[in-house]
Each structure stands twice: as structure tokens, then as C-alpha cells.
Amino acid sequence: MKRPGVLLIGAAIAYLAAAWSVTPGFYDGFVPQSPYNFVCPPPIAGANLPPASGHLVIKVIGGVSDANSAFTDDGQVVIGFLPGAFDVTGKTQVTVDIKPVSPCPNPSGLHFSTNTYLISADAPLAKQTDKSKWPTLVMRYSNLAPDPSFVYRSDSPNGPWTNIGASQQAQPYTIDTKTDVLGYFAAGYPSGAISKPNSQANSQILPATIAILIVLVLVGGIPLTIIRRRQARSGAADDEDEDEDD
Amino acid sequence: MLAVLRTRPAVRAAVLAAYILLVEYARTLSEQIPYAVVPALAIGGAALALAAWGWPAERIGLGTTRLATRVVGGLALAVVLLIPTAARVGAMASLPLDVALAAVLVSVGEEIAFRGALFAALEDVGGGGLAVVGTTAIWTAAHALSHPPQFLFAVAAAGLLLGIWRMAFRDLVGPIIAHVIADLAL
After folding, report:
1. Burial track A223-242 (b if 16+ CB lie within 10 A, e otherwise)
2. Greater model confidence, B71 or B95
3. Does residue A141 sit within a domain?
4. Is A38 among the domain residues?
5. Which of A36, A94, A112, B121 could make an SS bond with A142 (beta carbons 3.0 to 4.6 A apart)?
6. Which parts of chain A register pLDDT below 70?
7. Is-contact B99 A237, C-beta < 8 A?
8. What's the number of domains chain A is made of?
């Protein structure tokens, strides 16, 4: 058993080194595939890359804007347009831009979990009474930030911010909604909201979990080791007795 | 075909590896479909567990002897898996309940498939060493679609650690416990 024990310790050291070399560490597919790129990273974010912008040219075919999706290069924002989403009077194409906003807006009464993005187009959105035909906005958020409850929209980074709701999550760590107006968008929650499942209050849960696991290992492991040693000793004593009898 | 699988361990291991990879890739791709995450995880986990069909529980490390030691070992393995992230991040992932339950299914299914059935099949071909290396390689390949390349070293190292535990203690209970805790916490 000594050699496997050495192998096990070696593997544990190799794992710690490998997992330490990437942020946040080992995971098995249930956190966002790539770290969120913050404009204003929280202290626990570690290494951070600047968020990407997005640009899309939508063709106008037969006097109707084509269906297409604009997205930032890091995939943190996607907005999908159905055919005829824009009022294209006199236009042959529509240009859509998505840009992260810096500095980060800090509206009173709201806390944003995502970056704020300015989504603009060189043509206005067509008036649609059927909400299902409105553009769909999907915003990805970080597992390091509190889960947002709603998407907010504004005409200015200084507000005022309007809650435009949120649909059921299509994917983990994304929030989506419909909008009939472009402008500034961010996902967040009212500052007074409590019991956010991923709030700063649980920011030390992981170390606490490890501490509990270590206690459980010690509480369970020490008695087990003592019992096994006693069994081994009594087994050895029995063998000696048998040898003497022989 | 079944006779070939029974009598030729190498063919059996290759078929098992191909099946597991196919399930893992199908699951990962299905998770990209809106609202399909939970069904993809649940069905994927069940399909992975099917890999153990026909294997005695003892052969795949699920015997009941020394159960307390296995459980404590699983908790210790979980500590090792969580330390690098906990040291830097602190916050736990907040999975919705349905995703968390499905994640447990996948964790158990992956352990039964990789370090349970595939380990046993590779052990029949070339012993414990080949089983550890082989399951680690297939485990890493299976995560190539779901993880950015820079994370695959950590994935491989986790597979190696759990594989060596499986070989050293002929136990799958510990890796299952560690994998479930790690998936829920990370």
C-alpha cells in the first residue's frame, strides 16, 4: 500500500498545481465556460480581461430587415432580431453595435451584477404590438457576482433605469428578456433585495465548506485509524499465538 | 457481438470508451440548446450509468466492505478538489435546484462509467496502471467540448487523482462522493 499512497500524494500535488494554474480552478461544466470579463471586477474576480464589443450589419431584403443576432466577441451579450425588427425606411442595411460602458454606472437603489452595455443601431426598432416579435436580449453573468433578478434599461448611463423584466433562464448563468427599445442595458437587482442566492454573504461559503469537510475527515478518520490499528495488532497477536501453539 | 465483448477484453474496453465519449459529447452539445440543460444532464447521467450494465458491483468498486473508510476518503478527496478554488474565490456556485439534482446524476454517472466500468474493462486488458492512464485520457477527452483548453490540465489531474484512489483502494464510493461535492460546490 505504500507505493499507491505515494502515487496518491503525488497525484494530489499535481492536481493542486494544475488547478492553481487556472482561474477559478477545477470545475466540471456547471459554471460559465469562460470567466466573466468585468468592466469593474469585484475583488474576488482575480485576473480579469476587458469585456468585448460587438458589431453586426443586418441586410435589408425586399424592404424588410433580415433576421440576425448581434453579440459581443466574448459572448456576454447576445441580442436576436426577427425579420422586420427595424424600421428600415430608406435604408439598405442596418448596423448594430454593442459596447461595454465605462465607468460603471452605480444607480441608487439598484445593484448591477453584469457590465452595462450600450446597444445601438442606426435605425429605430419597428413598432411591434406583439411582444413575442420584440428583440430577445440575453446577458451572461458571472458566478462570482450575485445572481441578477431583472434586466434594466435606460437612455443614459446616469439613468433613470427601467426594469424590463426577465424570462426563465434558458441556460445557467444567463438572464434574458425582450425589449422594444435599444439603449443602455444591465442585469441586476434592487439593492434592498435580500436572500440573493449568490450574494456577498455567501462569499466565504466555500472555505467554510472545506473546513467542515476537514473536521468530518478528522472526526471520522481518527477513530477508523485507531480501530484498524487495533484490529491489525489483535490479528498479529492471534498469529503469534497460533505460531506458539504450533 | 456479445460473445466478442465477453471474450476479448480489449474490444470490450474500446467499445465502452467509445460509448462513454459519445454520451459525453452528446450531453455537452445538448446542453447548448435553450431549456435543455436539465434533461441533457439527467439523461446523460443515466446513460453513463448504463455503462456499468453487467458488471458486478465489486468489480466496479462499489462493494460494501470498509464503507466508513471509503466515505471518509471521499470527503478527503473533495477537500483536495475544492482547495485551489476556495483559496482564491470563496463563493460557491449557486445552482438552481433542478440543475443541482441533475448535476448529482451526472457526477454519479460519470464515476460509474469512467472509474467504474471503463476502469474495470481496462484493468482486464493491462492492469491497474493502464486503467488509471486510460480512464484519465478518456475522461480528459470527454471534457474537451465542455472546457476551454487551459482547464484540461486540471481536469486531467483530477481524473488522475480519482483514478489512483480507485486503483489503490479498489473503491468507487470515495470518487463518487468527491465528484458530487465538487460539482455542487464549483
Report:
1. ebeeeeeeeeeeeeeeeeee
2. B71
3. yes
4. no
5. A36
6. 1-2, 23-34, 44-46, 168-172, 192-204, 236-246
7. no
8. 1
Range of the domain at A186: 51-200
Residue of A nearest to B153 (CA): A18
Is residue B91 less than 8 Å (CB to CB) from chain A? yes
H helix intervals, chain A: 2-20, 205-245
pTM score of the predicted model: 0.68
- Domain presence at residue A6: no
- Inside any domain, residue A82: yes
Between positions 48 and 67 of A, the ones with CB within 8 A of B are none
Q: Which of B76, B95, B143 sits opposite A217 (nearest CB)?
A: B76
How many Cβ pairs closer than 8 A exist between chain A and B? 181
- The Cα-based distances of B78 to A12, A92, B175 in angstroms read 11, 58, 8
Name residue A104's amino acid.
Answer: C
Q: What is the pLDDT of residues B114-169, one digit of tens each?
A: 999 999 999 999 999 999 999 999 999 999 888 777 788 999 999 999 999 999 99
Residues A73 and A136 sit within 8 Å (Cβ to Cβ)? no
Q: Which amino acid is at A191?
A: S
Look at residue A120 and give its three-state secondary structure: strand
Q: In angstroms, rounded to a whole number, what is the distance separating the alpha carbons of residues A157 and A155?
A: 7
Nearest-angstrom CA–CA distance, A205 and A83: 47
DSSP single-letter state for residue B113: I
**Which CATH number characterizes residue A162's domain?**
2.60.220.30
Question: Going by DSSP bridges, is the β-strand pair A68-71/A150-154 parallel, antiparallel, or unpaired?
Answer: unpaired
pLDDT in tens, A92-114: 999 999 999 989 898 888 888 89
